[in-house]
Amino acid sequence: MCGVTEERVHRTAYSVEVAAPAAVVYGLVSEAVQWPLFFPSNVHVERLEFDGTNERLRMWATAGGRIRSWISTRVQDPQTRRVEFRQQHVQPPVRTMDGTWAVEELPGEACLLTLRHAFTVHGDRAEDVAWVERALAVNSRAQLDSLRSLAQRWARFDSLVLTFEDSLRIDAPAEPVYEFLHRAADWPGVLPHVSRLELTEDTPGVQVMTMDTRTQDGAVHTTESVRVCFPHAGRIVYKQTATPELIEAHSGEWNVVSDAHGVTAVAQHSVVLREDAVRRVLGPDAGLAHARRHVRQTLRRDTTALLHRARTHAESAPGTR
User: Fold this and answer.
1) C-beta atoms surrounding 22 within 10 Å
2) 144 is a domain residue
3) Do 112 and 199 have their domain in common?
4) pLDDT tens figures, 97-129
5) 247-273 burial, b for 16+ CB within 10 Å, e for fewer?
């Protein structure tokens, strides 16, 4: 007679004290669409539904050296400062995953932030349980540390975060514009600031990219990114997983928007500055305002060059005239 393996629920809990108001910390936890800026492991968060309390999210993140995607449902409770979540359509070896974010107010404008997980794995194999526990430990600690660091700078948050976009009209169909943005492996030799680019796409639509970028003074910066591609929507979203020294976090999006007369290619950037690197990189007299101008000018220069090259490629493609 065959036995049935009972899958045990495994639980983890990690906490950190944060020297910031509980409302500020809860606000960071509740704004999941901004998590690629807040948490190292999060690549992209797409909000599918939200009624003010119940939320449905599609999430991409790195876990244990792999890029994983799942759908999470969340219930936000600002009164108790708790967010309960449950992952749907999880990837093996995980069978179920749910948990809670909880923010507990402490004396002296401080709070305790706790992240709990409860999970099962298929067959309850010890090696699979250990892998999930390791991934949760690494990601949970990184998330808590990153959120604490951001929250404790909440008074300067508006100066540290920079969001902007650039756009370019293109007299061509959307397909060749998107093709140029998607085929980033072809950029070296075409874009003057890109000296090397390695790209892999083990999972269709998810690209891992390492790029060497040459600055105006001749220095070379190496960045690593994960890109999630939505060809039918003409979108590519990305998160830099290894950033230049002046940037703590960088996420962005390429959009190809069609209309009756052609397309508009839009590049969006969101950046968190690395405050302790400002003077080291830009000089002893530099401040956050200088750093904001420098980062915006640098990203705008490279983005504009790429958009113009995409326009040249698209407008000269066969059949566009």
Assistant:
1) 19
2) yes
3) no
4) 999 999 999 999 999 999 999 999 999 999 999
5) bbbbbbbbbbeeeeebbbbbbbbbbbb
